[in-house]
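Supplementary Methods S3. Input chains for the assembly prediction are listed below.
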Amino acid sequence: MSDSPPTELPSHYDHQAAQEKWYTFWEQQGFFHADANSKKPPFSIVIPPPNVTGALHLGHALNNTLQDILCRMKRMQGFNVLWMPGTDHAGIATQAVVERRLLEEEGKSRHDLGREGLVDRIWEWKAQYEKRILGQLKQLGCSCDWERTRFTLDDQCARAVRETFFKLFADNKIYRGKRLVNWDTYLQTAVSDDEVFHEVTKGHFWHFNYPVVDPKPGEPTHVTIATTRPETMLGDTAVAVHPDPAAAFDKLSTELREKIIAASAKEKGELDEEATLLLERRAKMLPQLEILRGMALRGVKLELPLTGRTIPLICDEWAKPELGSGCVKITPAHDENDYQVWQRNLEIGAINILNRDGTLNDSVPEKYRGLTMKKARAAVVEDMETAGLLVEIEDREIDLAHSDRSKTPIEPYLADQWFVKMDELAQSAMDAVTDERVKIFPERYTKTYLDWLSEKRDWPVGRQLWWGHRIPVWHNLVEPKSELEACNIPEEMFVEARDQLRLYLVAAGFSEEDFRIEFDDVYMRLCIKNPKVDDAINALNKYFQGGLDAVKPGRVHDASSPILTFVPGFKAASDAAKQITRFGKFVREEEVLDTWFSSALWPHSTLGWPNETPELKTFYPTSVLITSRDIITLWVARMVLAGLYNMDEVPFPEVFIHPKILDGYGETMSKSKGNGVDPLDVIDKFGADSLRFGLAYLTTETQDVRLPVEFECPHCQALIPQTKKNRTLPRVECDKCGKPFGTQWAQSHGSAEDQALPRGAAVSERFELGRNFCNKLWNASRFALMNLADYKTSANGNLVADDLLLEDRWLLSRLATVTGEVTAALESYHFADAARALYGFAWDEFCSFYVEMSKARFAVAEQRATAQRVMAYALDTLLRLLHPMVPFLTEEVWHLLGEVAPERGLTDPQTAGESVCVAQWPTVKETCIDKAIEAQFAQFQTVMGAVRNIRQEKNIPPRTPIKFSVRCDEEAIALLQPMEPYFASMAGATATDWGPKVTPPERVASKPLEGMEVHVDISEFFDVAAERTRLEKERDQLAKFVQSIEGNLGNENFVKNAPAAVVEQQREKLIEVQGQFQAVESALGKLG
RNA sequence: GGGCGAUUAGCUCAGUUGGUUAGAGCGCCACGCUUACAACGUGGAUGUCGGGGGUUCGAGUCCCUCAUCGCCCA
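Predicted structure tokens for the full assembly:
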């Protein structure tokens, strides 16, 4: 706590000092630690775990600021608050980053390191970034319970993952299926749809002829197909023609006609032309297509060139009569649409022609094997040309999918995948939202959630990666030479092997609680919950390799898998083992689980599940989830279904979706675009409080947040707007001083020289709002502290109503109202409303009026004590209300205030606590709310405004005293006369007269107000022309207003239909405005 | 192609169930360093509320439509 007396406080708030001092203080006091056994009502939030791929950006700052605001308010409201922190392992993203670096820095691939080696490297990376991320959160002021920090890949989460996978497996909700996946041939893994981006590139459209086998006379001898990927023809299993081309043409014509009717004249021309072309095409193509359709129905085959295979001509609606030749080649293993055709025509089969690395496999003729797609393409085209089957080559733009991670083109690839059946799980998560056990705010996002879940698409959970939770399944590996052979394994063999395996494991001391055995027509699979079973399987494998001797008691061969040597039922076990191993060795599944699998469990896994911990009991379900809209489906939906599945209870009753932060061009911020902003840069420049307040101020319901970004020149501090061009330059030259500086781009893309330049931080001027506000608060506090040196409460324990002046009662009324507004806004996630209410109150009401007025009062001995009491109380309340958004500044001031005014409160003064962080949240003092007082005060403000306005209009220097009088009624006199000192101190104006009969002086500037008229004596500054101009302008405005109201009231329908109150209001307004108009007219008249 | 959202002052955004002269911050203009604060004070200017149509006594707000932009899904 500061030793310096308040008068020596700097005139600018030093955010850096406050941040260091108070964060340490809070941690040391243990304010952020939640007690699972507390009697207080619980409030808990799990952090959306930032992934350890990189440092936090502004989006994270927003996300965590909002959580912290809620946590801090709830803590002050007396809740037992747990904010569970942690990070996410982010499977593919992290592995890709580490692999890329490995290649760049050491020229090594993951295969050079091997699985363990690579995973070790990733753990190192994780350690580094986790530290950085948690540090960033602390700098931001986040009040997380750090003792409970988790990681999605730590032991506790691993237990939860294994338990869940096992449960799903045992529940028959896990299966293996063949699906087309987005195959990244560089990383050699499947990537999900959301890890793919599309790019239009220049390509070609090749037209090939496939010969018809034994055509009848009159039938075509060739079928023409076209493709953008000629090499895939080696995997064709059919060619399709539309089953009813005539109907298809008709349907198109009808649609086109409807369009033409609705179209504008301009579009009509084009559409008409289109319709004509369609008709011509129909006439030309239809007979041929109908012949082909007939051939397809007859079962005609085609020769698939280059392969020696024949493939069927089939009927399927995927063939579009209006496009190309009307026929389409079908490659089910390498095209999503063709895959669908296969699902409708299973007899055609599917042939995978790719190896995992993107080269062609043994399913294609020998000459193409081992070629890359690119080489194979050239070869196929050449061979087709030689065979005389190449018809033509068109140029064409192609929408090509690329992997987000490796930036290489994606190959659709038919692969065995692990799936989670979603039908029931998805339904449960939908029900939870439709019956409002989970509410999503803003409500419109409910649709996103429900739409996605309603598709009930099975969840592919396996990833061909090394970084992640390895799937806890062992395969009993038979290497079938072909799928045919695999299919011929008699089921009895599986049954027998399964029974034997079960016997073995039971003999080894395990139960069905620990493992589960399933088989399909190729594999026997063992899913293991208890990791000790892994050891038993390892022992079995040893046996398989070395015979029974290898695992005999007393001959311990391997300390890591000694299970067979110790099991009591060794004999039974070994007999069983003999049976099982006839089948083959057990191999642990190589794949790991999708990152979202562990994230889905986050709300309960972090609390200790599957153990029944006190934390789980106290804090589950959590209170609310706060996240960004792009992971509603990937994460929120899955948490809900996983929570219901494992806990039988939703993970949170409410979800708040906050906006995304975009740059000045409306683009999402990202490292790869170079437009990201590091919150630490903003914190350095503006302070954590400013960042937090600025973010809260921007968090509105409807829109994403646009944040123009600037570089700050490290030499002269000039701000240079970031553009699409300069954001990816490693060095930028300052507009102002001309000196070069390095950008964030330099770190990843710059030369050593660029990197050596001083770094220009990327920041945004938007945060000046927060900084200015903080500084205003700081200075208002400083003023209060300076004037509270002789503050005492003991002489005057309770303030009574008589002690209070109008301004006190006004301030207290406003304070109570604002307390209610802020509380309600935060509790309903209206962060911007809360920030704006506080900003307006603190600046325009507390500072601009109450503090200003108190200056005059502090100077008057008999008014001083009351003013101090109210001032201390108001500041105290304001600090509490602001603390969630502006934690450091409020804590700093709280302590300073505590030194001069330790006991605060209007009645029953209480000693302020050790920290505002755990001070009680203000409650609304209903008795203070007085709308009449607020209206009266507004009247005072209006008169003050009029006087100030006239001074400025007349160009009267601020320090020149002026005189004014006010024509008003008796009631207003009673109100305004006591305020005379304030007109003197705040407007340099002395009142000369009040009342209904006030006559303005000869040379006057007048301003009509509601029911009043303000006259400022300007004899010393008289300028007829200027005054006339001013009044004429005012008259014109009023005339317009009168006209508009008269227009309304003259409208019979308005008077008849509008509510009486509205009509009456208009009538009153008219009289009022007409009065003002006349006042101006007469003032103008006087000017002559 | 389907869904959601946005379009309001030069910029970034508010605008409650329709109610009558549309607000804030920054920026701009004028005047001011008055011992809390120039990161400030006082005053001021600034909008055919994306275009078009409709409902209504009355539309920034409700409906239709078009345009542009963004996101999600295919």
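The longest strand of chain A covers residues 196-211. Confidence is low (pLDDT under 50) at residues 1-6, 480-487, 550-570 of chain A.
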